[in-house]
Batch of 2 targets.
Target 1
Amino acid sequence: MTYNVQIKVMPLKDLLDPQGKAVLGGLQNLGLGAVTDVRVGKHITLQVDADTEAQAKSIAEEATKKLLANPVMEFFEIEMIN
Amino acid sequence: MTYNVQIKVMPLKDLLDPQGKAVLGGLQNLGLGAVTDVRVGKHITLQVDADTEAQAKSIAEEATKKLLANPVMEFFEIEMIN
């Protein structure tokens, strides 16, 4: 069966996020001063062939650790969509 | 009050996603052949000062339409986190 896996990869909370800061400046120039903080990360969707949801999740975790996220600078969250 | 808004911006389903294709190739080289499709987009978190959740959501929508997403190539989803 094919499972749809959603992965969110964001810069660690303690690190500066220059891209987020740039977006924040842009929003303020557009008059959206109500936005006080922005952080920008990646959103990745995978289609995974696996027998069970748990197996699909473990494959997605392996993919994230090996290629998609850099643990020195990023954290990730994995969500399964049936 | 400050609201935490999560925004997912992904390439439209009908469009090619070269970054996703590159990641897919990388995963297959790593032996993760169970992954059959990858799409890569952006995940953005905003902190929005607003009186109500509905107001915060409408500010986030405006920000997304004006700056964060390109509707020609991308679609977005907004989720509020209390």
Note: DSSP finds two helices and three strands in chain A.
Target 2
Amino acid sequence: MNEPVQHDIQMGKDVGRLLLRCADRPGLVAAVSTFLAEAGANIISLDQHSTQQTGGTFMQRTIFHLPGLTAARDALERDFGERVADVFGMDFRLTEAAKPKRVAIMASKEDHCLIDLLWRNRRGELDMSVVMVIANHPDLADQVRPFGVPFIHVPARKDIRESAEQRQLDLLRGNVDLVVLARYMQILTPSFIDQVGCPLINIHHSFLPAFIGASPYRRARERGVKLVGATAHYVTDDLDEGPIIEQDVVRVDHRHSVDDLVRLGADVERAVLSRAVLWHCEDRVIRFGNQTIRL
Amino acid sequence: MNEPVQHDIQMGKDVGRLLLRCADRPGLVAAVSTFLAEAGANIISLDQHSTQQTGGTFMQRTIFHLPGLTAARDALERDFGERVADVFGMDFRLTEAAKPKRVAIMASKEDHCLIDLLWRNRRGELDMSVVMVIANHPDLADQVRPFGVPFIHVPARKDIRESAEQRQLDLLRGNVDLVVLARYMQILTPSFIDQVGCPLINIHHSFLPAFIGASPYRRARERGVKLVGATAHYVTDDLDEGPIIEQDVVRVDHRHSVDDLVRLGADVERAVLSRAVLWHCEDRVIRFGNQTIRL
Amino acid sequence: MNEPVQHDIQMGKDVGRLLLRCADRPGLVAAVSTFLAEAGANIISLDQHSTQQTGGTFMQRTIFHLPGLTAARDALERDFGERVADVFGMDFRLTEAAKPKRVAIMASKEDHCLIDLLWRNRRGELDMSVVMVIANHPDLADQVRPFGVPFIHVPARKDIRESAEQRQLDLLRGNVDLVVLARYMQILTPSFIDQVGCPLINIHHSFLPAFIGASPYRRARERGVKLVGATAHYVTDDLDEGPIIEQDVVRVDHRHSVDDLVRLGADVERAVLSRAVLWHCEDRVIRFGNQTIRL
Amino acid sequence: MNEPVQHDIQMGKDVGRLLLRCADRPGLVAAVSTFLAEAGANIISLDQHSTQQTGGTFMQRTIFHLPGLTAARDALERDFGERVADVFGMDFRLTEAAKPKRVAIMASKEDHCLIDLLWRNRRGELDMSVVMVIANHPDLADQVRPFGVPFIHVPARKDIRESAEQRQLDLLRGNVDLVVLARYMQILTPSFIDQVGCPLINIHHSFLPAFIGASPYRRARERGVKLVGATAHYVTDDLDEGPIIEQDVVRVDHRHSVDDLVRLGADVERAVLSRAVLWHCEDRVIRFGNQTIRL
């Protein structure tokens, strides 16, 4: 393939992503790859996973190059639905790499996760379109503005939760493909999660053993833990119990103060959240029951 | 210092370890180091820790070289008690590096932790004297015998717990300085722990989030965890809740089967347990409340 | 699929592995998966990689289940060659999961890598058939014999290299599918590597920056390195420069003595070598130029 | 100790740091700790290291609390010199925790290390006073200004090195305690290093095996490395060969593109450089020959 095409692919031009999930059975890979070959698409990469060696659920992520994808997309989607997905009982999703996801970031007073996402986005490491930052405190406005992203202050507390969520929904609904909770310290109701109409990704600290509730770092230090960590997950009605996307830890010891643990925990949190958002924006993460598969 | 002395120190000859703990106050380091200097001892290394910057608990581990230590030890211990420890209200312990701890390992059917300990001991990496292996199943006898360590089969089950523990106590009491539970799958009663007369170290798997009970690896996989880990801790009456000595994790993903998780978990377990036993045998671990300080 | 079949697959019965490599072009995945579907095989997993997004080299590893594989294998191989491989100019290899690789381990005086391989094999973690251990020193005979593996002492030194290699070749040629150099401290000549007729995997320590030659751990400590590591690679004529299969490191600091570095380095070496041998035995590693792709 | 004093210590008020280095001999710890006790200082923490168990070089870092330190400092320094340092032939340095180091950061076009340092400083994680950023390109001005730090553009290229270094020296000499090269891509001459009058810390990528020269990430990928890393070190006349302060690595595999390696490498670089600068600013790093000891 010639150089200009190579360059287009790197920019995401004419590159499609096909994600699918169905009951496992023979012939799936052949059916999908034959469809794509006949449509004139070249497979750039293909990853698949079965939850069991036989009889489980099959998931596949295929990246392909098809000249003129944007114009052809609707027809391709319809054809794939009729000729493949319906035959095998597949859920599927077809996206274009050149169309970044529209993302809202919700934050509170802590900057580490928020700034890491904005900074990676500006550097070109994290392909997304950050359409707004919603914060329940005004503190971070000055830090966000230089990134050229709207900063919207929506006060939120327990006593005004209903009206706050209504304002947030007015801002978000239909406007975003993903909401990232970047240390947004308020509980979101099941009603909000239901109505917002797109996935939400959250980050929380995690420890061995677990410390739920207030002052987790202080209690972790009192227990003498040797690792502190963070977990990024999709938000479900079960607070902090949704499907895990990514986890990581950092070693600590008795010489670390509570402040040190908070600082090291912040480093893990921002790294874990940024990886989870990156993988989601690259359509790598497939939900399956209460877990995720990263292809 | 001349070469023969250097060599003696490496062999632990004439090398003492002084561990102490007391309420923090000015002058502690000066008092201890002046005592040792006046006794003719040279400090090889000194590590200390205070639980708070002021007003907390002070702990110190001092390694020193004193020609003729074995002969002088009792007098040294008495003098230190009178001239330093009593003055500052210290708990202290004085050990000789040349006298390895007597260790019993309790095992069941799984070999990975047991063999790793015996193998490191044979290689000279882990200075201890393994005086017996007690197992509630006979399966590992052939694996243990080539290491030249007595293998004693004491059947143990829930219904014969009392008599089993009595036989174990008969073997252990007065004969060992440490009991290592190397995947010994039986519960030990508070009475046993109380009577055995020495510390016990246990290893258990650990996950984020935690899975307590049966089939933890299967449940961890169903939850889609990204890390599996292990925790080594001193045994207290609270099962699996004693002071943590060491923890570690290994990354996993959806491609790992339950068997893979078990295999990777075994690697972490043996590494973590071996490190914990090593540090204990080097007198590096000081207990403080429900945590440990590793100096 | 019913339970007995599920169990057969876990045992590797009727499970085939197809590895292939060719110039990338559209239609490859479709051609291979259609061939397998028509042959009655069910794809269990499929991993592929292209060295460039377009115009590079394409590699694929496909695991499939085909009842009666052993009987059908020769015909399947011939058909695939004619109908797919010849058409696309593919190199390919077809193996049966139920037929473990025959492996010889060459060692010297150090036991850590050798014992780790034998121990994982005995535990069932590392599916291979260890047909012999060849050592240029007799020291490890007693450690190897309990594993039920022949231990063959072939003295080897610089001055008798030619005759030693001839004896080793007499033992190995035609009898093994893989030679693992488990800290075998002798140089092997290009002539030996050429004649042995199977791949060789070697392990060596590695540092940042590199210390080539004698006493690497001493020099690493003098340089104050913060990481020590190990690299497992296929052996080529360029000593220690062959395609890398796996690498890892462990953190160290100024408190670690040279002995500590050697001990920690041994832990990394055995872990890295065991992973490399496991992946090779599972046909996961494809060589490409002077690198490897692990599918 | 009462609450106000506890708070003062956390703020660094009346907290001193004493670093010393001398030939090892008995009585050193006693002499120093007795001196401090007699001066009315309370030892908060004490770390020491000997390069050999006997006969080597002894290094110690002592953190102490002394009410009225700022006023008493000069006398304390003089007394310690006369009564302890001169007696034992010590090099020593006495600093006040409340007086942060004055730091200049030199950068070029890449932002990741520079921004991470400024951001941690603003968060209060990294106690230093950034007095200026000097860059040989104007690109990063807009990113630096919101941090309230002067951005000074000093064009520098091979052909104008002499005049550029002269301008840089005019800015730096006498004004800073540390220069951090945050991906400053120009060579600095031995003359500059000699005249600048303070330590310099540099960051560079590091690989196993090493790739020196242009396009290291491309060559690392072609070699199929499994780890990419970074090394922070003090600058000496030997380019990139000065005493190592910190190193770290991240795992990569064949699925990572060159862009991915650059991105992951940037994450390691900024983490490693920030840790090195933090430890230096806390007076934790002692140089010894061509290595560092971190106490």
Note: Chain C has two domains: 3-96, 101-294.
